[in-house]
Amino acid sequence: GIGNKFDEKFVKIFEPDKSVDAEGQLSESGIKNIDFIILSHMHFDHSGHAFSSSDLFSKSVIICQELELKAYKNPNDFTRGSYVKYQNRKNILTLDGSRRISSEISVIYTGGHSFGHQIIKIKIGNKRYIYGGDLFPSAFHVKPNHLTAIDVNPIQSMEMKKKILKMAISERAIMIFNHDTNIISARISGTPERPEIEQCDI
């Protein structure tokens, strides 16, 4: 998430909603520590809590792509606005491509949206879930050519979206949208070129 520590300039530009906070919600649920944080990418709205000094997150192992960590440390003129100033952090496990994290969780390197973007696949019982990060930030963005304006490689985004959609359709996976306030999750049908969504509960 976006985190809960903002300077005056950040608040003026982005107007973050301080009433919703992942750290507070997790604490209220009785969770006292987080072992791993798997980041789809390190843009500020996805990695805010990853660099928190709170007891809940400070000992967590961050899992991200090596390419993404390099992009975060050394942003260019196009990507600089998407990352906060580099903060040194121990316990970062970097990956070089797709990897199975456990029997239930795997990551698939996609690039496209950012240099080291990855999606996360989760298996719980007989259900499959796909957290698409900002390759699929909302239901609107399910179509391969519906991209965000800040994708560093739009062609790569479109090609990887088709591959992920093919997988989601064949596995009847539930896709989770992190930037959609109306449709949080949906199953995908149709074809990768012409996907259709069916809203469903997680």
From TrEMBL:
InterPro entries: MBL_superfamily_lactonases, Metallo-B-lactamas, RibonucZ/Hydroxyglut_hydro. The keyword Nucleotidyltransferase does not apply. Keywords: Hydrolase, Metal-binding, Zinc. One of its GO terms (molecular function) is hydrolase activity. It holds the Pfam family Lactamase_B. The keyword Mitochondrion does not apply. Residues 7-179 form the Metallo-beta-lactamase domain. SMART domains: Lactamase_B. It comes from the Archaea. Belongs to the metallo-beta-lactamase superfamily. PANTHER family: QUORUM-QUENCHING LACTONASE YTNP-RELATED, QUORUM-QUENCHING LACTONASE YTNP-RELATED-RELATED. This is Metal-dependent hydrolase. It comes from Acidiplasma cupricumulans.
